[in-house]
Design brief:
Strand content: 25-35%
Structural class: alpha/beta
Helix content: 25-40%
Radius of gyration: 27 Å
Distance between the termini: 50 Å
């Protein structure tokens, strides 16, 4: 180790990341101390790495962090994530940010201060490429002065911000590609909760636990859209058809429109969602490049409505991974397997039940016959803790039927996943 260049030692310490580990390791010798001071580029204060942070007083934590940061030169990545720690004084936090702002490229910041400080003001116009903020208040965004010319990833979690300021912040990030919005407290200037965001560079957006009347996103370059645990009356995506992944998980939305963005979709993953199949299928029907389709725990507006698997086969010829889970009814099985369709390219098939019955076995058998290139079958099921004798017999009969069925498809790998 004594022959390692000091720059290499700095890289080793940076891979440790956790401040406590770095301080201990740097005590090895003078070379390691020099590496800490001059060649360390990553430093993390995270209560999940070392829970004893919770035992320190706020004053002691401020001194500890200040001493550690101020002995470095050229930090590129700084993480201060101290959950459940009392509020810091604003002065030392401002000092940390000002000391590192010239070299910092990544900032992960979850710190409450008294009084509140304007993080954007301290970080703007610098080299920052990744910014992750949590439990903060952002107000008075001014794109003219608070520019982020290099920022590519922005994550806001449990942040209080107005819809206007969020829109302005996105405008200030001219090269942003990734945006994560989680449990935001969105302040509205009018009674109707409407938010409009626009970005020419945005490629990936994740939105979780947000409630709005109307959410309009204009993003010509968007490739990935993931909505989770949201309540929206209207969601509209305006783009130029670059979207490749659409994921919707436990979302309540009355009107969903992705416009022309469906043409290049490759992955559609929808779960815990109430849909009108005809409208949803019409929205994605032009996705001729679709390779993965997942419809899991779907509820229909119309009880007599079914997913038309034959239509899926004809509209998505490149489909290779199909996942379906429904509360099956006899009519669904009979109608779903009508026709002479073949899922030519499906190699992975995932099927699931909510309430097991003989109909499910029939459905599995019928779909296997229509997947000539199948290589893997995954069966998902729900098994209650308290099972009646009838339920046990049903599960046993189902298992036996699958064993008999798979003797016809020895080339197919079978996997069971029960909850």
């Amino acid at each position: 180790m004594e022959y390692l260049p000091v720059e290499v030692v700095g890289n080793i310490l940076s891979r440790l990341g956790a401040a406590r580990d770095i301080v201990i390791a740097s005590a090895t010798c003078r070379k390691w101390q020099e590496a800490w001071r001059n060649h360390l580029h990553t430093l993390t204060f995270n209560s999940s790495d070392w829970p004893f942070y919770h035992e320190f007083s706020t004053d002691r934590l401020e001194i500890l962090i200040t001493q550690t940061i101020f002995q470095t030169r050229g930090l590129q990545c700084l993480s201060i994530i101290l959950d459940d720690v009392d509020e810091f004084a604003a002065a030392p936090v401002v000092a940390w940010l000002m000391f590192t702002r010239e070299t910092l490229r990544q900032l992960h910041y979850n710190v409450r201060t008294t009084p509140s400080i304007n993080i954007l003001e301290k970080c703007g116009r610098q080299k920052l490429e990744v910014l992750s903020l949590a439990h903060n208040i952002l107000t008075g965004v001014e794109p003219i002065y608070q520019r982020f010319p290099r920022l590519r990833s922005l994550s806001l979690s449990y942040v209080s911000i107005s819809a206007l300021d969020l829109s302005l912040l996105l405008t200030a990030c001219s090269k942003i590609e990734v945006l994560n919005l989680i449990s935001l407290d969105i302040i509205m200037s009018d009674p109707q909760a409407t938010m409009e965001l626009s970005s020419n560079s945005l490629k990936d957006i994740y939105v979780e636990a947000i409630s709005l009347d109307k959410f309009i996103l204009e993003a010509d370059s968007l490739e990935k859209l993931h909505l989770k645990d949201c309540t929206l009356e209207v969601f509209e995506l305006v783009g130029k058809g670059m979207l490749r992944l659409l994921k919707i998980d436990d979302v309540s939305v009355i009107h969903l429109d992705i416009g022309e963005s469906a043409e290049n979709l490759e992955i559609v993953d929808v779960s815990n969602f109430t849909i009108t199949w005809a409208k949803f299928h019409n929205m994605i029907s032009r996705s001729s490049r679709l390779r993965q389709l997942r419809l899991w725990d779907i509820l229909f507006d119309d009880e007599d409505e079914v997913v038309e698997i034959e239509t899926i086969s004809s509209c998505f010829p490149l489909l290779s991974h199909l996942s379906l889970s429904f509360d099956l009814r006899e009519a669904t099985v009979q109608y779903g397997l009508q026709g002479s369709f073949v899922l030519v390219n499906v190699s992975v098939l995932e099927l699931g039940w909510t309430v097991i019955s003989d109909l499910f076995s029939m459905w599995v058998s019928g779909l296997l016959e229509r997947c000539p290139r199948l290589r893997k079958l995954v069966i998902h099921g729900v098994v209650s803790e308290t099972k009646t004798h009838e339920e046990c017999n049903m599960l046993a009969n189902f298992t036996s039927s699958i064993v008999r069925l798979m003797r016809k498809y020895l080339h197919v790998e079978v996997q069971f996943e029960y909850e």
